[in-house]
Amino acid sequence: MDQTAFRVQALQIIERWPEWRWIPEGYMQLRWTFAGKCQEAASGDVVDEDVHIVWSQSYRVPVLYMHLSHSDGASFTVEEAFDFVSRNQMASSSSLGDPWSFLTKTEHPVLGVPFLHVHPCRTPDLMALFAREGSAAPLFTWLSLVMSLIGVRVPGAVASAFVQEGPAANGRSEEGDDGLPPDELTFPAP
Amino acid sequence: MSNLQFQPLSSCVDASFWHKLTQMKLDVFKINDAPVPITGYFPAGARQGLPASRFFVDHDAFTTDVVPAAPLHHFRVPGTLVNTNTLADFGSYDKDAMMSRNVAKIWEAITSGQALQNPSMLAAFSLLTFADLKTYNFLYWFAFPALLTSTGPQPLDQPAQPLLDLWPQEAWAALTPALADSPVHILAGPVDHPEVIPFADLVKHTQAHPPTADEPLTLVVADPCERPDVAGWPLRNVLACVQHYLITPETPVRVICYRPAHLPSSAVLRLRLSPLGHVEGLPKAVGWERNDKGVLKPRKVDLQDSLDPKRLAETSVDLNLKLMRWRVIPDLDLDRLKATRCLLLGAGTLGCYVARTLMAWGVRNITLVDRTPSIHLPPAIPSIHLPPAIPSIHYHGPCLLQQPAHSTVMGHVSFSNPVRQPLFCFQDCLGGGRPKAQAAAEELVRIFPGVHARAETLTIPMPGHAIKPGGAEEAQTRADVEKLEKLIVEHDVVYLLMDTRESRWLPSLLCALHGRLVINCALGFDSFVVMRHGAAPDGGRPAVGCYYCNDVVAPRNSTTDRTLDQQCTVTRPGLAPIASALGVELMASVLHHPLGPMAPAEAPTSITEQTTTPMGFVPHQIRGFLTHFQNVLVSCPPYPMCTACSEVVKQQYRERGFSFLLEAFNDPASLEELTGLGEMQRKMEHLAMAAGAPELDATGEEDETAPAGPAAAAAAHEEADEEFTML
After folding, report:
1. Which helix (H) or strand (E) holds B17?
2. Does residue B78 contact residue B124 with C-beta atoms inside 8 Å?
3. In the prediction, which pLDDT does B1 show?
4. What is the mean pLDDT of residues B138-145?
5. Measuring CA to CA, which residue among B260, B266, B45 is closest to residue B161?
6. In 3-state terms, what secondary structure has residue B589?
7. Is the confidence at residue B10, as pLDDT, over 80?
8. Is it the case that residue B233 has pLDDT exceeding 90?
């Protein structure tokens, strides 16, 4: 995958999943509000998420940058974000394993604002795995995996649109978690 | 019939807004507190289970030349920001005037017809802030003005109905794009073929199709609320605007509270609107937001964690080390390193490099100690002998020298320092030079504000450097000993980085006594020794010896009868960074050994030998030879006759305290008698004389018969032991 492929696949995703938008500086953005639904979240727990998928020139993979805030606007600390991700990980039965221990604050490459980000040094392995399995839309496959861990569910219609395109994505999506509402799918870890 | 109720907006300020405000305050506003245009946005509806009626501002708020798109199903509206300069200004700011200016703007938009063209102007808001950029605390207060009309709250003709009971969902799916450009539209046409008409055509439309009970004026208003019987706040000004343009009283109106984020929650309200009565001046308005306790007071948010660049530096430093744990050393105990308190005795070349390497390992507590700087130069110039054939200058007496340009006032940064000592620069040398420990500690904080760097000054008393009894000098020495012992107790690891052999004696003794790990670095011209002292924190027997365990004589004054090149730093420049780095790495390895400072001396037989601990082997001593580009690992056990760490010496200090030390400073030979070294020396001399061998070298340091060390240690010892010096 190169930067052009990233852009092409990102625009494909945005076309089918209009909550995302393309920022002219070259990344995808999603604003999402999460209401505590996972078992261990306190009731009334609301998380405002500003999710950016940015292409990393050095690692040649997409990188997740996000800003999580409480409803009063206070930002999540790294520890709070880690707890949040862990809870979602348990709830979704997906696992990215180790990379989430490398959730940290860093400067957003375009905005220059502190953002949480997951260090991309493990992502190439993951993307290579998707490529080996012949995923037609590796960015979407990766995105679905990552989104489930921050409580963003891929809408069923979006998932099915991609399912029809690639045998790899197809195989995986049909294993949708039984515990989820029927119109939503997650992608268990490969 | 019940009255129509409105849900107030609840502000939600993204941290990126504060970040941007901070930048603007520093770069653009400075002390200007004039109103500034900004934008914010509200969602039309809320997904199930999510809080409703929220109002967002983020970093895009300041981009007003090209108004940025709002996220899907959100509508962006204009606002005004006033950022006050002080907390007092925030408190005393004329909020009524601020509200009036906002109301005037909305009223002007209504009466001029601009609001019909651009209905988002009806939701214009105000924001008053105070940014405390020292603590990254922000005070803020939003106003979402709602005009109060004389016709009051609107009674509903009938209970609200769900939108999808009246229109098929497919019809709305088709309308979505046409409704996305503005928060207010007019809907006309039959139920199965509804038609979207711009709000700008309000007057024309009502004239062409006078509203009737059967065909009321139908407004589609983006609505941030989610409750079936309650409307969102922005509807209030939309109704006021419509009323302004109505001519017939009791006009039947149908309001579609449009909530595309969750379309099934969209509601249809039926009510009757009458024209506004005459308004004298400006309409009254309400709309200051309540704080999280429901009180009409400002809100507050603390963003030090996410905005303070110092915190950012800290997390980045930690991340870099965490990556190491992930890829290479899963058992790396970063918290242990971070919590380790390091005392650096000596803030010269070795001290500077050790401090930097410690900081790179994430160590946060570093105390640098250097000599008490001498404010005044010593009164007497020591006698100088210039032997005709030897160009070096011999100094006798104390080490404090009248300045040749290349030398130094002890404890101050001198002109020769910065090129070798990476925490100093030229400026530190001016005006006699800054105190070294202080300058070094400040530079550490400048490099990384997350480090707790402390500077202390004291003169370490040494055997062979006599103290005049009973006077000020003795009192000062006693105070220095107390201070040193206190510092050692307060730290976990003590680095010996001084410039004389004998200055290491007292810290070695005190660390042995208190079970502190010692890392000792000493330089020759092209050789070095880096070693750890055995430490037994719980009073047991240490696994390895200390610096003095190889010696058969007590430390003595090494500064007398030395040439200047022997007294000052004359070492290959690469030696200090190598030795310093090895010292820190040795500490890191020892701290990762299951036995910690109690670990026995380990030495791999080959470079391919499997390591025993996550970080690798923990040797006792590393002796390096730059001439051969080789390091040799040697070790020695604790020597029962050691003048620094043996039980008998520790016992003497425990029992006699300072008076024992004073004896050692004034008469090093007393240590030899105490430990039995003196007796042993005499026996050896006796044996040697009996065998007709030449007399034992009086210094003993290079004596191969040193009983404590193995042959390898003794051989290596010869090379590295001139040491001394690092200014």
Report:
1. helix B15-24
2. yes
3. 56
4. 96
5. B266
6. helix
7. yes
8. yes
Token pair recorded at residue B679 = 């007796």
Q: Which residues of A touch B322 (CB under 8 A)?
A: 101-102, 104
For A105, the closest of B12, B74, B312 (CB atoms) is: B312
Task: Say how far apart CA B487 and CA B490 lie, in whole Å.
Answer: 5
Per-residue pLDDT, averaged over A171-186, amounts to 37
Buried b / exposed e along B373-401 (16+ C-beta atoms within 10 A):
beeeeeeeeeeeeeeeeeeeebbeeebbb
Task: Given the residues B568, B636, B642, B645, select the one marked as catalytic.
Answer: B568
Which letter does DSSP use for residue B62 in this model?
G
The answer to whether B318 contacts chain A (CB < 8 Å) is yes
Q: How many CA atoms lie within 13 A of A183 on its CB side?
A: 3
What is the predicted pLDDT for the residue at A94?
54
- Taking CB atoms and an 8 Å limit, are A113 and B318 in contact across chains? no
Residues from A contacting B (CB-CB < 8 Å) are 18-19, 21, 31, 33, 35, 37, 46, 48, 50, 67, 69, 71-75, 77-78, 98, 101-102, 104-107, 111, 113-114, 119, 121
CB B262 within 8 A of CB B47: yes
Which H or E run includes A7? helix A3-16
Is B177 near chain A, with CB under 8 Å?
A: no
Joined tokens for residue A40: 């261990």
> Which architecture does CATH list for B314-377+413-562+574-585+638-713?
3-Layer(aba) Sandwich (3.40)
Residue B393 makes CB contacts below 8 A (sequence gap 6+) with B384, B386, B563, B564
Average pLDDT in the B614-634 region? 93
- Structural domain boundaries in chain B: 5-147, 156-289, 314-377+413-562+574-585+638-713
pLDDT digits (tens, 9 = 90+) for B235-286: 999 999 999 998 888 899 999 999 998 999 999 999 989 888 888 889 999 9
**Same topology for domains B5-147 and B156-289, yes or no?**
yes
CATH for the stretch B156-289: 3.40.140.100
Beta-bridged to residue B39, according to DSSP, are B78
CATH architecture label of B5-147: 3-Layer(aba) Sandwich (3.40)
B71, B302, B306 ranked by CB distance to A31: nearest: B71
Say which range, A94-98, B531-535, B680-684, has the weakest mean pLDDT: A94-98
Q: Quick one: closest CA in B to A37, which residue?
A: B49
Rounded distance between C-alpha atoms, residue A50 and residue B174, angstroms? 28
**Percent of all residues in chain B with a pLDDT value above 90, rounded to a whole number:** 60
Q: Which domains can be identified in chain A, with CATH numbers? A: 3-182 (3.30.1460)
Instruction: Note the pLDDT of residue A137.
Output: 85
Distance from CA of A72 to the nearest CA of B (A): 6
Query: Which residues sit opposite B343 in a β-bridge?
Result: B367, B494
Report pLDDT digits (tens) over B152-174: 667 777 888 999 999 888 888 88
In this complex, the residue of B49, B72, B318 whose CB is nearest that of residue A19 is B72
Q: How confident is the model at residue B391 (pLDDT cuts 50, 70, 90)?
A: very low
CB of B303 within 8 Å of a chain A CB? The answer is: yes
Residues sharing a CB contact under 8 Å with residue B709, sequence separation 6 or more, in sequence order: B549, B550, B634, B636, B717
Chain B partners of A33 at a C-beta cutoff of 8 Å?
A: 46-47, 50-51
Contact status, residue B625 vs residue B527, Cβ threshold 8 Å: yes
Residue in B440, B418, B438, B445 with CA at minimum distance from that of residue B430 = B418
Dump pLDDT digits (tens) for A35-64.
865 444 444 578 889 999 999 988 899 999
pLDDT exceeds cutoff 90 at B124: yes
H/E stretch holding B117 reads: helix B114-117
Which of A148-157, B235-244, B513-522, B690-699 is least confident? Answer: B690-699
